[in-house]
């Protein structure tokens, strides 16, 4: 194992590191870190503390993983970053642990690509097979479902949810939830299409693409009419579509205050409690 760890690396004695891990020059591994089999830390990587990492992850130079959350309400309570398998974290990316009042964990699934300078804030939950292009910024409590793609320089407001196969265009300012399969861009971001490319890549049949295309036209392009009535009509016209059912459930959850940005209004913590008094 020592042949795989550069002599300049600094490793806390409480860290648990699998025998097949490779740790390059000037990396630092903090307390209560677990790194699984076949992970590679190139060089100058900082796994700060309280991070559980699966197998096969590759982290590039100057990335900071498991850092303290940038939240004035955080006072050093034990919180975690949990990372799955086969993720790639590129240069200067930052992924912070959770906060005590926000669930206590930030979670990154498996097979994700986090490009250079991406920031993933506290209590964010990310699924599998997602791509975050350079300089994308995710605020706290964001949820990103499987197979989503976040363009370069995009900024996601806290508590925003990006649905399954969602797509955020580069430089977008996202302050509202993005339903499954939808494509948004702009500042502020608005729905401009549906993500047919990713739907095809994940193997969805042509019938599902057609159903989502019709949903986009009726819900987001057609003028007038009630949204609930439109969704009811779509479910009647495409009764076997799993994609439409997923889309309808997502919209209903937002409307009922059970999802995404709507959860911000239900937060129980005092947002101003930890702010320093003005001089």
Biggest sheet, strands in spatial order?
A: 3-6-9-12-15-18-21-24-26-27
Shape: elongated
- Given as residue ranges, the uncertain stretches (5+ residues, pLDDT < 50) are none
Do you know the CATH architecture of the domain at 2-195?
Answer: 3 Solenoid
DSSP, total strands? 27
Determine the strand fraction and express it as a percent band.
15-25%
Number of helices: 4
Name of the CATH superfamily of the domain at 2-195: Hexapeptide repeat proteins
Query: Could you say which structural class the secondary elements and strand pairing correspond to?
Result: alpha/beta
- C-alpha Rg (nearest Å): 20 Å
Largest β-sheet summary: 10 strands, mixed
The CATH topology annotation of the domain at 2-195 reads as: UDP N-Acetylglucosamine Acyltransferase, domain 1
Work out the helicity level.
10-25%
Assembly annotation:
single chain
C-alpha termini separation: 54 Å
- Level-1 CATH class name of the domain at 2-195: Mainly Beta
Description:
With 279 residues, the protein is α/β, with parallel strands linked by helices. The protein is built from four helices and 27 strands. The chain has a ten-stranded mixed beta sheet. Helix 2 runs antiparallel to helix 3 (227-237). The mean pLDDT is 93.
Give the helix/strand layout.
Blueprint: E1 10-11, E2 16-17, E3 22-23, E4 28-29, E5 34-35, E6 40-41, E7 46-47, E8 51-53, E9 58-59, E10 64-67, E11 80-83, E12 88-89, E13 94-96, E14 105-108, E15 113-114, E16 119-120, E17 125-126, E18 131-132, E19 137-138, E20 143-144, E21 149-150, E22 155-156, E23 161-162, E24 167-168, E25 173-174, E26 182-186, E27 189-194, H1 196-201, H2 206-221, H3 227-237, H4 242-255
Parallel strand pairs: 1-4, 2-5, 3-6, 4-7, 5-8, 6-9, 7-10, 8-11, 9-12, 10-13, 11-14, 12-15, 13-16, 14-17, 15-18, 16-19, 17-20, 18-21, 19-22, 20-23, 21-24, 22-25, 24-26
Antiparallel strand pairs: 26-27
């Amino acid at each position: 194992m020592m042949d795989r760890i550069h002599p300049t690396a600094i490793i806390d004695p409480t860290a648990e590191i699998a025998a097949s891990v490779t740790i390059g020059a000037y990396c630092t591994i903090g307390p209560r870190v677990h790194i699984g089999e076949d992970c590679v830390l190139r060089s100058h990587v900082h796994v700060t503390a309280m991070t559980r990492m699966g197998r096969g992850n590759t982290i590039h130079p100057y990335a900071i993983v498991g850092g303290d959350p940038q939240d004035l309400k955080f006072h050093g309570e034990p919180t975690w970053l949990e990372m799955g398998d086969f993720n790639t974290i590129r240069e200067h990316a930052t992924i912070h642990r959770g906060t005590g009042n926000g669930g206590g964990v930030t979670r990154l699934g498996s097979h994700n690509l986090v490009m250079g300078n991406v920031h993933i804030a506290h209590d964010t939950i990310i699924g599998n097979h997602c791509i975050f292009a350079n300089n994308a910024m995710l605020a706290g409590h964001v949820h990103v479902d499987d197979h989503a793609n976040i363009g370069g320089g995009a900024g996601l407001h806290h508590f925003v949810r990006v649905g399954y196969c969602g797509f955020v265009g580069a430089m977008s300012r996202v302050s509202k939830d993005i339903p499954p399969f939808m494509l948004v861009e702009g500042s502020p971001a608005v729905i401009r299409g549906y993500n047919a490319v990713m739907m095809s890549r994940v193997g969805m049949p042509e019938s599902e693409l057609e159903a989502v295309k019709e949903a986009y036209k009726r819900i987001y392009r057609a003028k007038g009419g009630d949204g609930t009535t439109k969704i009811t009509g779509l479910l009647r016209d495409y009764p076997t579509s799993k994609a439409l059912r997923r889309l309808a459930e997502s919209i209903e959850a937002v409307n009922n205050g059970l999802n995404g940005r709507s959860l911000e209004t239900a937060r129980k913590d005092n947002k101003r409690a930890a702010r320093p008094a003005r001089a």
